[in-house]
């Protein structure tokens, strides 16, 4: 028997007044997959994310995590069940070292109260060092998070997000504000981590070089509907996607509208 998808959304609907932010959206994300959710401004990408992580309750439809119905659960419950996320604006503790940020995330994910946190917790330290090695941050372990280069902050945020061993990772424009080299390096890292940890990743992105270079599958939303769901090659060649979103950028790999 094949494993159920890590995430399965079915017929999601959400309207604001007369605006159908989501209008019958269905798709699956499997373990190890890096699924890009793209589309023009106002297509419904953020609404879809926020329904999956519990911040918005849909008017209709279901969200399933490994077969379990999580529709309408509060964000904390959804996070505990294995949905991690990174933010457009990096969320790290500036005064703590890089290592302590990841140790704290590990302990928090296990429910340890901050009051009981002991920096000498050997097991958490070992695991945190492991995560830093996996995210290319080992050399910066003892540096305060304040003052890190932007690309390193994003790596740290990724390390924090996977410290709780999520099954699904939601990334909202993970490479926003980064230069070409940096953003391709970051998404390449995400792809390697997803494969190594059998993690399902759903991300929104406006940089088409990131999407076409690294997504394993792409979903295109427009006006709250899925207009295409396929491989990078299929999406790039889809006339409707080109008309609605990619335009000439499909050929150049530049940012969509
Ligand atoms: N809280 C809200 N109240 C009213 N309308 C909303 C609200 N949130 C979203 N919308 C509308 O729903 C539609 C989808 O918005 P959403 O933010 O999900 O799109 P998006 O694809 O994430 O856009 P962007 O790429 O600009 O972030 C838009 O028309 C938006 O104006």
From TrEMBL:
A GO biological-process term: D-alanine transmembrane transport
Keyword ATP-binding set for record: yes
Domain ABC transporter residues, every copy: 7-248
Pfam family, one: BCA_ABC_TP_C
GO CC terms of this entry: plasma membrane
Transmembrane region(s): none
Keywords noted in UniProt: ATP-binding, Nucleotide-binding, Transport
Organism domain of life: Bacteria
One Gene Ontology term of the molecular function aspect: L-isoleucine transmembrane transporter activity
UniProt-recorded name of the protein: ABC transporter ATP-binding protein
Taxonomy of the source species: Bacteria, Pseudomonadati, Pseudomonadota, Alphaproteobacteria, Hyphomicrobiales
């Amino acid at each position: 028997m094949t494993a159920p998808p890590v995430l399965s959304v079915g017929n999601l609907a959400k309207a604001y007044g007369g605006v159908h932010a989501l209008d019958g959206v269905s798709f699956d994300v499997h373990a190890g997959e890096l699924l890009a959710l793209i589309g023009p401004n106002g297509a419904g990408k953020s609404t879809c994310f926020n329904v999956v992580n519990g911040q918005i309750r849909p008017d209709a439809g279901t969200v399933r995590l490994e077969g379990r119905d999580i529709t309408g659960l509060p964000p904390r419950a959804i996070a505990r069940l294995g949905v991690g996320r990174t933010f457009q604006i990096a969320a790290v503790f500036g005064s703590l070292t890089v290592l302590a940020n990841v140790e704290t995330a590990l302990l928090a994910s296990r429910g340890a109260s901050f009051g009981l946190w002991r920096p000498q917790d050997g097991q958490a330290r070992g695991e945190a060092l492991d995560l830093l090695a996996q995210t290319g941050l080992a050399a910066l372990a003892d540096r305060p998070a304040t003052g890190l280069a932007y690309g390193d902050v994003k790596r740290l945020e990724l390390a924090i997000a996977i410290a709780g061993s999520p099954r699904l990772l939601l990334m909202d424009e993970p490479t926003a504000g980064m230069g070409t080299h940096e953003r391709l390096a970051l998404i390449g890292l995400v792809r390697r981590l997803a494969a190594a940890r059998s993690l399902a990743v759903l991300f929104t992105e406006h940089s088409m070089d990131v999407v076409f270079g690294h997504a394993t599958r792409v979903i295109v939303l427009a006006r709250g509907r899925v207009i295409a769901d396929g491989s990078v090659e299929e999406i790039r060649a889809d006339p409707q996607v080109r008309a609605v979103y990619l335009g000439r950028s499909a050929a150049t790999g530049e940012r969509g509208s």
